[in-house]
Specification:
This protein has 10 helices and no strands. It is mainly alpha-helical and about 190 residues long. It has 2 domains: about 70 residues, no CATH class; about 110 residues, no CATH class. InterPro entries: Bestrophin, Bestrophin-like.
Length: about 190
């Protein structure tokens, strides 16, 4: 039931069937023969204009617009996979420090994505209702939680989903100063071209 088409259309179907049976009952039991003839001529008049509207074309156009909009929304979801590949190929270091940098950057990216999705998705909000749930999941440390809570006390209105990206950017800046990143982004792009 939770994912079925019946759950989506039951209210519309109920309204349509109710209206249909009300009109059917009025036609059969409340109208006299002259009123039935007038009703039948109104139905024939409306039916004559049905062919003037290309319903299949309009329906196809509508479905095309809906599917294009859905696909654009789906492709605009920021999946962390491409960032993970970029980080693993550009933040060098086989030692423990390089590995921790890469993992921390990706943890911050996943934390940011989870915080954004909890603002827009009820299912994600149910899974992560508060910062303590993010700590339990391993996306947030206790000291980072303290920082976000302090920011929320000082500035309660806007969401703080951008804060992990700021932290990730500072790690990338530190890695560039320590020569863990050999090339700038512009250098990498010019070599690819």
């Amino acid at each position: 039931w939770r994912g079925s088409i019946y759950k989506l259309v039951w209210l519309d179907l109920t309204a349509f069937l109710t209206l249909y049976y009300v009109l059917n009952s009025v036609y059969r039991f409340a109208l006299n023969p002259d009123q039935k003839t007038t009703f039948a001529s109104i139905v024939a008049y409306c039916n004559s204009y049905r062919d003037l509207i290309p319903l299949s074309f309009v329906l196809g156009f509508y479905v095309s617009i809906v599917m294009t909009r859905w696909w654009n929304q789906y492709t605009s979801i920021p999946w962390p996979d491409s960032i993970a590949v970029f980080i693993s190929s550009n933040v060098h270091g086989q030692d423990e420090r390089g590995r921790v940098m890469r993992r921390t950057i990706m943890r911050y990216v996943c934390l940011c994505l989870t915080m954004v999705l909890s603002n827009v998705s009820p299912r994600v909000k149910k899974r992560f209702p508060g910062l303590s749930n993010l700590v339990e999941a391993g996306l947030l440390n206790e000291n980072e939680r303290t920082i976000i809570e302090a920011m929320n006390k000082s500035f309660p209105r806007p969401s703080k989903h951008w804060l992990p990206i700021v932290w990730a950017s500072s790690i990338i800046t530190r890695a560039r100063k320590e020569v863990s990143i050999n090339y700038d982004y512009k250098t990498i792009n010019s070599r690819a071209l």
